[in-house]
Structure formats: structure tokens, C-alpha cells
């Protein structure tokens, strides 16, 4: 009998050890209250049955269960089931809103200001955290409620290939409150943008190509006379007859319509504006005062034959690192949000995309050698991480390994230049 009891105890212990074996999670989203969504694959979208929950000690809270999970929003995570329906779970993994809604192109968004957009076979609407359909799904599309409790809704708007919205001359717009009342009537404007961040809306005049700004009471803040308007914090970038200017939140002119291009940049609470005029670039403040001391060929965005690619490399780099690439006399360097040249313009070539993807703020740079570029790596302060001696440099997405070529030999080094292995 004693042997039998010992055998059962050993079996129970063995089962417990295997049951508690930790899962290897290749991707872990940001933690909230010590819990994060995690995937067994490195793909952000995950694979079938790959997503679960894990704590900061690596303990599994929820086994890999879902095709897709999104970061926490207001304490809940939006999840996609194996059979293609979405709902919401809490931080224990419990389903709190049934998985019965159709996936949509805006799957990333969960709860925002206490409401979540949902889609059924009838259309789009909103639910609250109890799962109650507070706005019936009768619209062809909806935007999220803003902080003031208003949302833009659509009729006759369709999703095309690759989730591209198809706007037609039959598409109509309205603004509703959280009770479903139409505050701005359906069809009054030919276009209503998302909330500009200040509770106002950029609108397109009916039967015209002109834009302006209204408040929730339909009072005109910015006259409907512009060819294009973009909100940027407490300011509007406006375009008229291909010239750019800046208005404040009340519609007062801050910068006259004189630039060929303007793009807003920010770092923390600071903002500035990239401007292009007469083949030169610079940074200005909200009052139009020039911050940069030089006339750069470009800053952040890249010009090709007078066309602006609207590449967000410069904007993303500024927001994350307080650095935007700048070109002067054919050489590359970096400026900060105050227009200061923090890394001198000395490099002949730069891998523009490393800043966007680098986790630790390093980038490949090059100077011309006698017959080819010589590549190395610097950090955000301009400190040389790898000397500029290599024929090419490729930084991996985790910044831990760097592929290099030197004198015809290809190998992998670490951030200190120490060889890890041959390629």
C-alpha cells in the first residue's frame, strides 16, 4: 500500500512539473497590471491558435487560444476566435463580451471612451462594457467616440480590397452622441473627418472641394474655403492654391499661406513644423519663427522632383528619439525638435529606415571611400558604435546582431564589433 501511495505521489508530481512547464512566447505585447497578450510566433498578427496571456514572470495565464489579440484598452482585450468571430476578454482570460461579432478592417481598436465599435451582418454600431448594443448596428461604418462623446457615422460606405474604404457620391456622413442622436445631420456635408483632437470636425462643403472646421453646434471655426486641412495639436495646417499656412484652434492665422509644404512634428509636449520653400527646408515654431540656422536641402520627408512623399520616417524618428534626418550640402545629419543640429551633417549615405525600426536608437551611416562607401553604426547622440570600415552593414530588428562585410568576408558581429559567427 505504501509503495502504491508513493507511486501515485510521484505520478502527481511528474504531472505537475509538466503542467507547469512554461510556454516559449516569441512576441509579448505591453504589460498592463502585470499581464500581457503573447504569441508563440514572431508575427504581430500571430498565427492560428497562437495567442494567450502571460504574466511578467513568464507564467501562462491563458493557454494559446486565439488567432489574434490586441493590446489592453480600458482593461479589456479584443480577441479573434479560431472560427473567425471577435469579442472581448479581461485580464484573467475570461470572456466578458461574447465572440459573436464580424472581424473588420479596424480590428486594432477596442474600447475607447467606454465604447467599442462592432460590426454585424446588419452593419456597424457600438457596445458598452456590459456588451449592450447602445447604438444599433445600422450604419455602413462608424468612427470611435471622442472624449466629448461624439462620433462620425457613415451611410453607403463600403470596404474594398485590402481594407481600402470606398467612398462614392452616395456616401453620407453625420455626427451622433452616445444616445444615438444626430447632432450634425446626415448628408449636410460631403465629408466629415474624425475629431481633430479638440472636439471640432473638419468638414467638406456640399457640392464643392472646399474644407473648413466646425464645432459640435455646427458653428464655423475655420471658413470653408481651403483645398485641404490637417489638424496638428492646437493648430491647423491649411492649403490654398498649393500654398501652405498655419491657423490656431480658433481659426486665427499664425503663418501665412507662403510655403510649398508644411508637416507637423512633435516630441513629448513640444511641437514644431517642417517647412519647404524655394528649394530649402527648415523647422519653424507655431508663430512662424525659423528655428533652424541653416537652409537644409531636406528634413525628415524626402523630395523627388518637387513631389513630397509624405514619408513618416522623419516624423516617427522625431516623436521617438527627438531626431529628424537633415541634409545640408549633400551630407546627412540630424536636428532636434528645437531646430538644433545635434549630429553634424557629415555622412554621405544613411539607412533611413533603421531609425524607424531600431529599438535602441542606432542607425547605419556611411562616408565615401576611395572606391565605395564605408559603413558603420552610430547612436542618437552621434557616438560611433561600429567604425566606418565595412563594405555594408545590416542591423537586425532587435539591434543585437549586425551583419557586416569586410574585405570580401561576410560575418555577424555584436554591438561592440565582436565577431559572433560567419554568415
Summarize the SSE layout with pairings.
Layout: H1 2-19, E1 27-28, E2 35-39, E3 51-55, E4 60-66, E5 68-69, E6 77-80, E7 86-89, E8 95-101, E9 116-119, E10 124-127, E11 133-139, E12 141-142, E13 150-159, E14 165-177, E15 182-184, E16 191-195, E17 201-204, E18 211-214, E19 220-226, E20 228-232, E21 235-240, E22 243-248, E23 253-259, E24 261-267, E25 270-277, E26 280-284, E27 298-299, E28 303-304, E29 307-308, H2 313-321, E30 324-328, E31 331-335, E32 341-347, E33 349-350, H3 354-357, E34 362-368, E35 373-379, E36 384-390, E37 392-395, E38 402-406, E39 409-413, E40 419-422
Antiparallel strand pairs: 1-2, 2-3, 3-4, 5-6, 6-7, 7-8, 9-10, 10-11, 12-13, 13-14, 14-15, 16-17, 17-18, 18-19, 20-21, 21-22, 22-23, 24-25, 25-26, 27-30, 28-29, 30-31, 31-32, 33-34, 34-35, 35-36, 37-38, 38-39, 39-40
Question: Care to describe what's here?
Answer:
Among the domains are: 21-103, Thrombin, subunit H (Beta Barrel), CATH 2.40.10; 362-423, no CATH class. Helix content is 7%, strand content 49%. It is built from 3 helices and 40 strands. The chain has a 4-stranded antiparallel β-sheet, with no helix packed on it. It has a 4-stranded antiparallel β-sheet with strand order 5-6-7-8, with no helix packed on it. The longest helix is centred in the first third of the chain and has 18 residues, at 2-19.
Amino acid at each position: 500500500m505504501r509503495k502504491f501511495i508513493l507511486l501515485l505521489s510521484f505520478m502527481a508530481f511528474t504531472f505537475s512539473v509538466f503542467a507547469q512547464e512554461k510556454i516559449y512566447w516569441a512576441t509579448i505585447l505591453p504589460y498592463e497590471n502585470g499581464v500581457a497578450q503573447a504569441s508563440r510566433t514572431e508575427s504581430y498578427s500571430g498565427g492560428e491558435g497562437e495567442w494567450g496571456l502571460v504574466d511578467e514572470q513568464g507564467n501562462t495565464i491563458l493557454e494559446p487560444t486565439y488567432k489574434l489579440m490586441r493590446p489592453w484598452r480600458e482593461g479589456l482585450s479584443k480577441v479573434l476566435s479560431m472560427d473567425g468571430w471577435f469579442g472581448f476578454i479581461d485580464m484573467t482570460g475570461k470572456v466578458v463580451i461574447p465572440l459573436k461579432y464580424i472581424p473588420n478592417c479596424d480590428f486594432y481598436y477596442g474600447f475607447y471612451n467606454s465604447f467599442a465599435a462592432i460590426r454585424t451582418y446588419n452593419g456597424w454600431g457600438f457596445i458598452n462594457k456590459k456588451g449592450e448594443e447602445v447604438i444599433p448596428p445600422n450604419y455602413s461604418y462608424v468612427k470611435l467616440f471622442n472624449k466629448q462623446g461624439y462620433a462620425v457615422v457613415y451611410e453607403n460606405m463600403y470596404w474594398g480590397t485590402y481594407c481600402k474604404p470606398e467612398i462614392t457620391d452616395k456616401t453620407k456622413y453625420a455626427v451622433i452622441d452616445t444616445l444615438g442622436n444626430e447632432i450634425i445631420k446626415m448628408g449636410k456635408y460631403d465629408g466629415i473627418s474624425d475629431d481633430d483632437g479638440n472636439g471640432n470636425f473638419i468638414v467638406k462643403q456640399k457640392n464643392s472641394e472646399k474644407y473648413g472646421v466646425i464645432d459640435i453646434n455646427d458653428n464655423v471655426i475655420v471658413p470653408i474655403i481651403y483645398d485641404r486641412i490637417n489638424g496638428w495639436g492646437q493648430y491647423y495646417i491649411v492649403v490654398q492654391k498649393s500654398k501652405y499656412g498655419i491657423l490656431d484652434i480658433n481659426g486665427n492665422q499664425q503663418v501665412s499661406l507662403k510655403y510649398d509644404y508644411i508637416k507637423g512634428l512633435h516630441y513629448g509636449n513640444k511641437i514644431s513644423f517642417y517647412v519647404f520653400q524655394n528649394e530649402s527646408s527648415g523647422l519653424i515654431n507655431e508663430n512662424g519663427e525659423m528655428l533652424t540656422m541653416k537652409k537644409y536641402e531636406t528634413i525628415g520627408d524626402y523630395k523627388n522632383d518637387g513631389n513630397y512623399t509624405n514619408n513618416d520616417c522623419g516624423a516617427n524618428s522625431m516623436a521617438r528619439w527627438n531626431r529628424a534626418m537633415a541634409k545640408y550640402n549633400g551630407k546627412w545629419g540630424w536636428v532636434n525638435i528645437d531646430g538644433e543640429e545635434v549630429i553634424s551633417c557629415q555622412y554621405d549615405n544613411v539607412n533611413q529606415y533603421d531609425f524607424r525600426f531600431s529599438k535602441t536608437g542606432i542607425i547605419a551611416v556611411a562616408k565615401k571611400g576611395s572606391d565605395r562607401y564605408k559603413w558603420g553604426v552610430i547612436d542618437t547622440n552621434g557616438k560611433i558604435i561600429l567604425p566606418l570600415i565595412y563594405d555594408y552593414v545590416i542591423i537586425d530588428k532587435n539591434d543585437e546582431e549586425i551583419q557586416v562585410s569586410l574585405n570580401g568576408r561576410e560575418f555577424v558581429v555584436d554591438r561592440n564589433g565582436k565577431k559572433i559567427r560567419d554568415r
